[in-house]
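This section describes the prediction task in plain terms. A model, or a person checking by hand, is given the sequence of a single protein chain and must write out its three-dimensional structure as a string of tokens. No templates, partner chains or ligands are provided. The sample shown here is typical of the held-out split.
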Amino acid sequence: MTGTVVEGRGGFYTVRSDGRLYTLRAQKKLRRQGRPLTGDRVIFTPGKGEKHGWLEEILPRTSFLRRPPVANVKKIALVVAALPEPDWMLVEKLLIISHREGIEPLLIVNKQDMASDTLKRAEKLYRATPLKVLGVSALTGEGFEKLEEALSGGLCCLAGQSGVGKSSILSRLTGEDLETGPLSKKTDRGKQTTRHTTLLYYRDLELVDTAGFSLLDLPVIPPEELSGHYPDFTPYLGMCKFNPCYHDTEPDCRVIEAAEFGEISKERLQNYQILLNELKEKWRKRYD
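The expected answer:
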């Protein structure tokens, strides 16, 4: 039989096939493939009676996210909020990774019931990109009609910091009573309540709830390839004085000029330059 991994926990995997759930353990031979991930399409043999079945093979993946660990993602919804304070560098890294994997990203700004300029800042940052930015409130339901439409069309993974309201959004959408928690009063940072990566089904939606995180490393790629993952830079590529151009400190750089003239976000260019220099350092030390 074939099915989709809904969750893995304590060496057991829950797999959904034709609307039914099966509890399985992975055969030892799968260790060579790596452990099954939520979203994996698998071949399995169901158990008999009270006995668990066996997960026998992981089918080829169309995409793969290391963090959060999910396979076969078509869309990734990056969630930020007024509180905790958005980590825009984390958003940038997730956008780069999704571009490398061919995953369509969208940006959800939650907690629109709170007075904040977070939505305006997000729209300004990404105005020259195709990234869809949606303002919602899991508390009031604001923006959820557009959100449900944006999340449809294949397996969609919600990702972001702890405390931004990923589980609250999913609870509002699906009616599932998912565990949520308040922000720390001392730090205004989120407390992690989601501990497992879980695939939920609602109407025609396939939604993955994931644990929040703040640390994420980019894959080590040649630094000159980084700008190719910035669609707002694309119109200016090949127009700089130097080729290749890193769009960092070079004279007569058309991308830098575009930021100065307000054609693209200056803050986004600055974030790119920070990531570029981190990547240059990692590239130099890749064989150490």
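For orientation: Residues 2-60 form a domain with the OB fold (Dihydrolipoamide Acetyltransferase, E2P) fold (CATH 2.40.50.140).
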